[in-house]
């Protein structure tokens, strides 16, 4: 019995030694991993909020489509040129504002027609999240199939006046086929 009592503190010490604090290197790695996960969660939260906002804008729009860069998703648009899928990617700074790539894709995989569209861009009100139309800029763009008609067409955009951080939305509307 005395022998068992003598071993009890040794066993307890051995168990507690196994539960000792991790090394500083392990702590550093764990801390770095937690920071990365927090950044990913924050990014996904911003994206989900922007997607909800984009869906709300598009649900109240009978003409055209709203694309919010932070939503990072495609939007379907019914137009006179047929049903289209729109995506906004490669949003980068440029000397006088922002450069982006708008990709138009036929929603039914038919070849895209030659078409003309109005592209508007601007900021969102930081308090309400609504577009600030007073400071919006716009341009008319013509999209023409060059060689063979295809279902998708990238359209480079030059969005002057706003940096990528300021760019709150791009709205594509008044799409009409060209004869």
Q: How would you describe this structure to a colleague?
A:
It is a single chain. By secondary structure, the protein is α+β, with helices and mostly antiparallel strands. The chain has 2 helices and 8 strands. The chain is 30% helix and 36% strand. The protein has a 4-stranded antiparallel β-sheet with strand order 1-8-5-6. It is elongated. The model has no long low-confidence stretch (mean pLDDT 84).
Q: Between the first and last Cα atoms, what is the distance in angstroms?
A: 102 Å
Q: Specify the structural class.
A: alpha+beta
Shape: elongated
Name the helicity range.
25-40%
Low-confidence stretches: none
Could you state the order of secondary-structure elements as H and E? HHEEEEEEEE
Q: How many helix segments?
A: 2
Number of strands: 8
